[in-house]
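Retro notes (design track)

What went well: tokenization of the new backbones is finally stable.
What didn't: we kept losing track of which sequence belonged to which structure.
Fix going forward: every design gets posted as structure first, then sequence, in one message. First example under the new rule, 464 residues:
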């Protein structure tokens, strides 16, 4: 393999001749052969957006020569269009704060800019990764900004997926509205509900989470870019902060703003943690709902079997004809994985010290991948499970008819203790609550049936 020699503050090192990255990236490749996982495209895109905006701003401030700035911008546009994706090679487990990733991006743009300017890769005098591409910046303000921008880029996909799930459940709520079934609390028989009411609650919940996730994104729009190494803005032009926020707003379409406190923006992962907590909350409810659906479709002969989810693949390698709730199981596994990732974000968020949180590389990876994975999982849940779920109305009616707890509606007429006695007898003797009440002479059958109309009992009121 052909190499070129590049030099940094530690000395000389061989770099693959065909690589756009340079010596510092090569050191990171050799130092961190850990996971084989590379930076997520959204994270690379966000970092390159920062470099592009910085070059434009410094050109406007006459701190960067026009030809150099234009070459950097052109190189950045190439990356943003999808070119050179194979040049971002630093493992996600790397030096703290993300210096290696930042330099990987600086070097790719600098070396490509050298070519655009008519020179060769590695000619730092023509275009330097540190002095030109990284002008006015530090890893310490670039990486937290890149995490924010990347999250803002991918979050709409998750919000849209949650909204879609809400609509899918709402459609089923309307479809199942006329199906009365037994409610269950503590996994024991409870008063009647409608299947549509259960699914309506799922719809409302998913919609609320979509709004919560969307709202959590607002803190990400406050950028500490321009804080430089420690928040002071050392080596940063006084106008850079406002100008770069404006440039990034124009480039991304987001309404970005300057940080209220540049030291806090560098020290704290608060806005990122807010998003992680919103995701975690959604996952907890999503896991609960999938567990509900798995329970409701249990069977088909010896379980509840009140609903049937689509068969998407054979369920057993040994039991012919067995069908499992595979999509629901997948979402549960995905949920557990994402909960672990959100916990990692939380642990890392509290692990910062003084002016910097050095855990940012893994914070960014876990947050961005969680958002993308969850959006994918929710979309599959809609398409291949919820949309095709059907109800077994007869099964639901059967359970509702034999449920003695329906007698709760008689409390205002007979009193709690008398009704409890009737329910216990009905269960013990395997009779209906109607038969027991009538046999005891407590109320005429017609009146009992009128009060215990299952459909009426699924709405508010004291039934007469």
């Amino acid at each position: 393999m052909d190499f070129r020699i590049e030099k940094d503050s530690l000395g000389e090192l061989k770099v693959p001749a065909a690589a756009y990255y340079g010596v510092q990236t090569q050191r990171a490749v050799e130092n961190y052969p850990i996971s084989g996982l590379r930076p997520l495209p959204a994270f690379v895109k966000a970092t390159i957006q920062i470099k592009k905006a910085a070059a434009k701003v410094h050109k406007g401030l006459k701190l960067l020569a026009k030809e150099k700035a234009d070459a950097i911008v052109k190189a950045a546009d190439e990356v943003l269009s999808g070119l050179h994706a194979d040049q971002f090679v630093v493992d996600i487990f790397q030096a703290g704060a993300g210096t290696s990733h930042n330099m990987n991006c600086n070097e790719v743009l600098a070396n490509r800019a050298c070519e655009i300017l008519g020179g060769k890769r590695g000619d730092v005098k023509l275009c330097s990764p540190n002095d030109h591409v990284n002008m006015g910046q530090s890893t310490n303000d670039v990486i937290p900004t890149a995490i924010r921008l990347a999250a803002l880029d991918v979050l709409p996909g998750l919000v849209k997926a949650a909204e879609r799930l809400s609509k899918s459940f709402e459609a089923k709520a309307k479809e199942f509205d006329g199906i009365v079934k037994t409610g269950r609390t503590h996994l024991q028989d409870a008063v009647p509900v409608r299947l549509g009411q259960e699914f309506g609650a799922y719809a409302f919940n998913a919609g609320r989470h979509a709004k919560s996730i969307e709202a959590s994104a607002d803190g990400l729009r406050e950028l500490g870019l321009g804080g430089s190494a420690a928040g002071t803005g050392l080596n940063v032009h006084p106008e850079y902060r406002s100008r770069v926020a404006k440039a990034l707003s124009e480039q991304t379409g987001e309404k970005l703003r300057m940080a209220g406190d540049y030291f806090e923006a560098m020290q704290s992962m608060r806005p990122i943690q807010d998003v992680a907590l919103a995701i975690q909350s959604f996952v907890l409810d999503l896991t609960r709902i999938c567990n509900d659906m798995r329970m409701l479709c249990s069977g088909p002969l010896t379980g509840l079997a009140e609903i049937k989810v689509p068969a998407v693949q054979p369920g057993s390698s040994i039991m012919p004809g067995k069908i499992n709730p595979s999509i629901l199981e997948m979402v549960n596994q995905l949920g557990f994985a994402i909960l672990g990732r959100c916990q990692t974000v939380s642990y890392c968020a509290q692990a910062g010290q003084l002016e910097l949180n050095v855990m940012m590389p893994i914070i960014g990876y876990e947050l961005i991948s969680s958002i993308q994975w969850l959006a994918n999982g929710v979309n599959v849940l809609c398409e291949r499970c919820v949309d095709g779920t059907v109800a077994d109305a007869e099964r639901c009616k059967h359970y509702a008819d034999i449920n003695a707890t329906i007698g709760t509606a008689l409390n205002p007429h007979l009193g709690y203790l008398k009704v409890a006695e009737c329910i216990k007898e009905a269960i013990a003797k395997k009779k209906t609550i109607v038969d027991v009440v009538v046999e005891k002479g407590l109320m005429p059958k017609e009146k009992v049936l009128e009060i215990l109309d299952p459909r009426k009992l699924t709405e508010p009121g004291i039934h007469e």
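Added context from the reviewer: Residues 403-458 form a domain with the Ribonucleotide Reductase Protein R1; domain 1 fold (CATH 1.10.40.30).
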